[in-house]
């Protein structure tokens, strides 16, 4: 929208922010993002522009500066109240000032103020942060630049002021966004994927270890900008030693060398193949109104809640016999299917599924604290480790209260969290998983929820790792002070990061992580050289400082009323020393060289962020809970819905229909095996026709194979040949002479037999 004042919002207020240019540099698994925000005042009065926007919750914001004409001003980190007072004083005296501060409730929301921008003037704001890239279950490294900030629910009685966010529908965002990324790694780059439109990947050298990619034109702000980066031979342990800052005091974090160690534990296959039939699985499902939104724009008929129902079906069918489970749902209030977790059986599974089918996004707001408190108040079941799965679109404001609660109960469970849809709070989703010793997953763009959740269920079924310790083998005169919190969880193939401050001469050393896995002592060791890398950008130091700051902030919240001022002082000191933001500090810059005061009354303009507003029509058309559940249209889900808790299938019309035959046709093929026949055919159908969705059904297929094996049924003839192999053609291929279909049906039989 353009008029005499330039860009305006839908309520006709001019918007001084014209464009955002974001440039990403990725070095292996560490990313640095530099954003340049261009402001222009086309009004006849001086402006104060206020922009509340999202950032990754684990980002270390380390630079903030402004360019006004020929004047370049670099902001300083100061105690937050002092910075706010300096900003207000500058505006009162007619000076230009710039303030960047983190929200007190959630570390993934920032407020940027551009104060006293004169009429006709422009200003360029430079914002820089560093972050580690999260490892995904498929070995990809995930970077996300949040572009969507949905309204966040403020629970009743929550502490602290709420963040005032000005939002417009994504299609009406009145400024442009450009994005480019340069990626480099010691290993070749296989591919880079995104839910956004990208220009073709361009390699910058022959060995494909450097590449660049750009966001396609016309970004609509209807999704976050997500990159998934894949390297060949990923998951290689590494250690990066970075020299300290020359101007910093020796002995301080910024003055000494810092090492970042990345370990990827590999567990023995013999241990991984033995999944114990134990555990308490608690599923906490968000049923707030926003869960009625579509999963993505390309399939608007699939809502978040409908996908969640399908996911719960797969989860319930994949649980092992002998475990315990329960399902909670929450919004403004919360409900649970059982008063306490119950043993998994055919009866309890069916009862749970009947209620899952009736779930709707009809519970109002997003109050997650109360159901979490209720779950944690339940006594744990001996010899059944608690695994908590949390599904939410992450639209809450009391993020720190939630993550602190998870942390306080970390000894009693592991927490796996799932952020559903665009705009889910990274601070909430990542924070819950980190504090709960689990794994975080984000379902955005065209992602399907089911495979990602089943990946996490496989992690939850891994044997628990106990007695984790870290030891250093260093030469005499060299010491290492660990800066990271203690490692509380280790998963097969997933990265463990350790930051440590080093003192002493350059030499060789090693770090060893020891742990107990299913009663077996194990360890992973990495040798490295203590010679600092030539890179002087202090990236590792800032990430280490961010890690220490977050730990101290968390400790300060638990100490409130007990030495909290002392801990707050330590946070402020480290934040100022490292130049990394915290909840107790802010970046402040004042233009003292303008020569004269900016006269005239100050006009405030709120710069809007994007939110997704495509939910109302879905709330109105949502299926009533009183209506009967609708049958699954997806053949895979139809088949899964027919499986028994034991892992077996019964032979009836619905199963035959999935196979494309009648019950009579299937029974005639091998009547003496009718007790096993249905389960055998179901597994062969999965292996033959649904290999592209194997991640979704693999666990329930393993359970079915175990059931078949336990029956000791005669599935082989006297020659040792499977008796069912000769009748596969009759079941799947009657009335068909297509040789390709014959091959397709027979191919999975041998694969299936390996399960037995």
TrEMBL record:
TM ranges: none
InterPro entries linked: VIT (IPR013694), VWF_A (IPR002035), vWFA_dom_sf (IPR036465)
Sequence ranges assigned to domain VIT in this UniProt record: 1-131
Domain of life of the source: Eukaryota
VWFA domain residues: 280-461
One Pfam family hit: VWA_3
Protein name: von Willebrand factor A domain-containing protein 5A-like
């Amino acid at each position: 929208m353009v008029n005499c004042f330039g860009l305006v919002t839908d309520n006709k207020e001019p918007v001084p922010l014209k464009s955002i240019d974001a440039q990403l540099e990725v070095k292996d698994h560490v990313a640095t993002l530099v954003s340049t925000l261009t402001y222009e005042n086309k009004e006849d009065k001086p402006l104060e522009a206020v922009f509340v926007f999202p950032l990754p919750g684990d980002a270390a914001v380390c630079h903030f500066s402004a360019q006004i004409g020929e004047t370049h001003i670099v902001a300083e980190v100061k105690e937050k109240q002092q910075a706010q007072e300096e900003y207000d004083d500058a505006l009162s005296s007619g000076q230009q000032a710039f303030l960047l501060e983190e929200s007190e409730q959630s570390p993934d929301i920032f407020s940027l103020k551009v104060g006293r921008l004169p009429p006709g003037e422009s200003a360029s704001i430079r914002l820089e942060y560093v972050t580690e890239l999260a490892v995904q279950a498929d070995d990809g490294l995930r970077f996300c630049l949040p572009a969507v900030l949905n309204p966040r629910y403020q629970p009743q009685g929550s502490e602290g002021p709420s963040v005032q966010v000005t939002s417009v529908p994504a299609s009406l965002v009145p400024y442009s966004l450009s994005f480019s990324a340069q990626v480099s790694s010691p290993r070749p780059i296989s591919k880079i994927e995104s839910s956004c439109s990208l220009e073709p990947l361009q390699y910058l050298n022959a060995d494909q270890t450097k590449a660049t990619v750009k966001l396609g034109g016309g970004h609509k702000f209807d999704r976050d900008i997500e990159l998934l980066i894949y390297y060949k031979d990923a998951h290689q342990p590494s250690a990066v030693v970075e020299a300290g800052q020359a101007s910093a005091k020796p002995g301080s974090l910024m003055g000494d060398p810092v090492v970042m160690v990345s370990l990827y534990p590999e567990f023995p296959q013999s241990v991984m193949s033995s999944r114990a039939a134990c555990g308490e699985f608690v599923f906490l499902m968000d049923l707030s109104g926003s869960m009625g939104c579509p999963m993505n724009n390309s399939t608007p008929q699939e809502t978040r809640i409908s996908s969640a129902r399908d996911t719960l079906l797969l989860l319930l069918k994949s649980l092992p016999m002998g475990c315990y489970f329960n399902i909670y749902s929450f919004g403004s209030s919360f409900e649970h299917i059982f008063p306490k977790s119950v043993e998994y059986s055919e009866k309890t599974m069916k009862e749970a599924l009947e209620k899952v089918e009736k779930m709707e996004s009809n519970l109002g707001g997003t109050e997650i604290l109360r159901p979490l408190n209720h779950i944690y108040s339940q006594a744990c079941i001996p010899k059944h480790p608690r695994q908590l799965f949390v599904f939410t679109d992450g639209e809450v404001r009391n993020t720190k209260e939630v993550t602190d609660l998870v942390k306080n109960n970390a000894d009693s469970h592991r927490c796996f969290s799932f952020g559903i849809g665009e705009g889910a709070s990274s601070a909430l989703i990542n924070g819950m998983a980190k504090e709960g010793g689990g794994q975080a997953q984000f379902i955005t763009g065209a992602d399907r929820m089911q495979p990602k959740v089943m990946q996490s269920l496989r992690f939850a079924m891994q044997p628990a790792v106990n007695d984790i310790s870290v030891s250093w083998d260093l030469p005499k005169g060299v010491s290492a002070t660990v800066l990271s919190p203690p490692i509380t969880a280790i998963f097969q193939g997933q990265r463990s990061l350790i930051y440590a401050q080093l003192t002493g001469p350059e030499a060789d050393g090693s770090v060893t992580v020891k742990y107990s896995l299913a009663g077996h002592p194990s360890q992973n060791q990495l040798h490295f050289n203590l010679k600092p890398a030539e890179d002087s950008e202090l990236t590792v130091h800032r990430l280490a400082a961010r890690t220490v700051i977050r730990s101290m902030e968390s400790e300060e919240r638990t100490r409130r009323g007990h030495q909290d001022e002392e801990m707050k002082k330590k946070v402020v000191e480290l934040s100022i020393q490292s130049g990394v933001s915290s909840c107790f500090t802010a970046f402040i810059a004042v233009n003292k060289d303008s020569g004269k005061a900016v006269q005239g009354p100050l006009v405030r303009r709120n710069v809007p962020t994007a939110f997704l507003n495509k939910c109302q029509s879905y709330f109105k058309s949502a299926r009533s809970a009183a209506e009967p559940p609708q049958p699954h249209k997806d053949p895979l889900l139809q088949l899964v819905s027919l499986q028994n808790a034991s892992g077996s299938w019964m032979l009836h019309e619905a199963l035959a229909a999935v196979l494309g035959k009648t019950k009579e046709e299937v029974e005639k093929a091998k009547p003496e095996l009718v007790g096993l026949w249905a389960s055998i055919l179901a597994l062969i159908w999965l292996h033959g026709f649904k290999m592209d969705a194997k991640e979704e059904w693999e666990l329930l297929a393993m359970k079915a194979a175990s059931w078949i094996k336990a029956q000791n049924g005669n599935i082989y003839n006297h020659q040792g040949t499977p008796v069912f192999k000769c009748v596969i053609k009759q079941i799947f291929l009657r009335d068909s002479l297509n040789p390709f279909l014959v091959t397709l049906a027979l191919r999975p039989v041998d694969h299936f037999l390996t399960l037995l």
